[in-house]
Amino acid sequence: CRSYRFHILHAGQEENPQPGARPVRHRQAHRHDIYHVILYTQGEERFLLEGAAHPAMPGTLALVGPGESHCFGPYDGGRSAYLELTFSLESDCGSLRLPFRELLGLYAGSDLRSVPMPVQLPPRQASILSGRMAILLTQLSRAAPLPWYASCRTILDILSFLIEEVYGGADAPGAAGDARLLRARQEIESRFREPLMLADLAAGASLSPSHYLRAFKKRFGL
Asked: Which of 19, 80, 113, 219 could lock 43 by a disulfide, CB 3.0 to 4.6 Å apart?
């Protein structure tokens, strides 16, 4: 199968411990065929990933793919909070089970370097990612939801951030990225009399605005 449907399973802000909850050391980690983006925002705790306890503090990022064991609650029973985006990719053949890095490599159109998880983001990067995830939560929680493409654009911004800032990837756009940039240039040339918005052009090229600017300049020199 080559066509998969993107499903948001959960997006929210989790605070631990919940009333009556036991420390993670008294619970078992679990695994499933879904993807997690976890960004810790408060506390100094630990969480479980692939059988090991890792520090969790503001700016700690964990990308967890299908089949990887995990438990994000506080390992030592302290307090912590994190933003979460959980999604799956489904087809008639079942769930996609690629590692997170390989999935992002497909979106980027190139192989990405290996980055052990979790990673500690610098404050600037943590602020950018938490801001984008907060925007998504707002879009998904409106009483009158925005059109689906608005949330899709924000999800694309989040994935683009992970590709560019975490994996340092895709500065060379590759064949697929090059075709997108060519289409973007053609759109600019055909609509140059109109007030064009950077966000719209970047979305049309399936890139974040910052990545779009760098890739466009590298490809066309301006």
From this structure: 80
Q: What torsion, rounded to 10 degrees, do the Cα atoms 145, 58, 69, 99 define?
A: 70
Q: Considering Cα of 41, then 31, then 106, then 1, what sign does the dihedral take?
A: negative
Locate 102 and state its tokens.
């390989």
> What is the maximal distance between C-alpha atoms in the chain?
64
Q: What is the pLDDT of residues 90-147, one digit of tens each?
A: 999 899 999 999 999 988 877 888 889 999 998 989 999 999 999 999 888 865 556 6
Mention every residue, 6+ apart, whose C-beta is less than 8 A from residue 8: 85, 86, 87, 140, 151, 155
Could you read off the pLDDT of 70-94 as tens digits, one per residue?
Answer: 999 888 888 899 999 999 999 998 9
Q: Which of 156, 149, 152, 132 is nearest to 208 (CA)?
A: 156
Cα–Cα distance for residue pair 71/83, rounded to 1 Å = 14
**Using CA atoms, how far apart are residues 29 and 133, in angstroms rounded to an integer?**
25
Which pLDDT value is given to residue 172? 40
